[in-house]
Amino acid sequence: FVNYLESWYQNKCLSNSTSSSTAAYYYWMIFNVIEPSLPDKERAVDDIDAEYLNALLACINQKNENTAASAYRFLRVFIKDSFEPDTGDYELFFQLKKYSVLEKDPVLYTAEQLTCFLSAAKKDNTSHYLEYALALYCGLKPGEILGLKYDSFDLEAGTVTICGLHARNYVSADRNGGDNSQSLKYSGRKLRSDSNYRTVPVPEFLFDEIRERRYLNEGILLRYPGLAEEGALCLGPYGKVKTLPTLNTRLKKITQSYGLPRISLGDLRYMYLADLIKREKQFDKIMKLFGYANPYRMLGLCQQIADIQGETLTINVPFPEVFYYKM
Question: What is the pLDDT of residues 138-157, one digit of tens each?
Fold first, then answer.
């Protein structure tokens, strides 16, 4: 079965895909998720049925429920792409047991917990306070924060404009290792068009932090010249742009040390949203500041935040216009 998947990947997926990240994701799914979880590795392709595929999904689900949800979506793509409708094999599309991603409620700190956290992050010697503050006070996504440059900020206007991000890219090829083996790299990239850019306010005190970070980065660049992207804000101690795992690992240590509920960078962004929906009542402006294009997801998230806080959502939603959004 894996050989059949590999043939599909090489002959159809790679030739038709316009996204290197999608192709690499399929490679990872086939060889890192499906192959180690096969219930019967010797099963002939012609004998693959719904019972076999559902056993495969159940095996993956025992290891990680969210990975099972990803495998379920992958298998549906594979079946739809490989077989003609109205055939017996295509019926597998409808016979797979559905696995869904588990939704986790955001962790929202109380005022006292937030004060404790900010004080601890400020004193922490890893110098990640600015990254955490940009998520908390500006609602920026992790990739947006790591992709910031000094010229992203407008001191006079008191804003930051998001026009790119820093994210990981999977580069995959030869299964046998060597120079072509799968590797993980991070890189900065521009957003697709100006229409994807967004500008959000920045608290005045954060500009002092930005100036302090720039001074710190200049010292790093003197020690490790030529390693960093020019003008990058979020440099690590050796001149390379920081990564999300680095920030979240330190978050875990800080919260554990001070007896606080564990959070991620995403939770800090949700805390920004929790404050935003108290201050801003216009739904379209909330969407714009938070960087969401789908009004259904945005409304659901706002309601989820309000429910966690035991409050009533009072934002002005433009019905029925919100329903004109095309999924």
Answer: 999 999 999 999 999 999 99
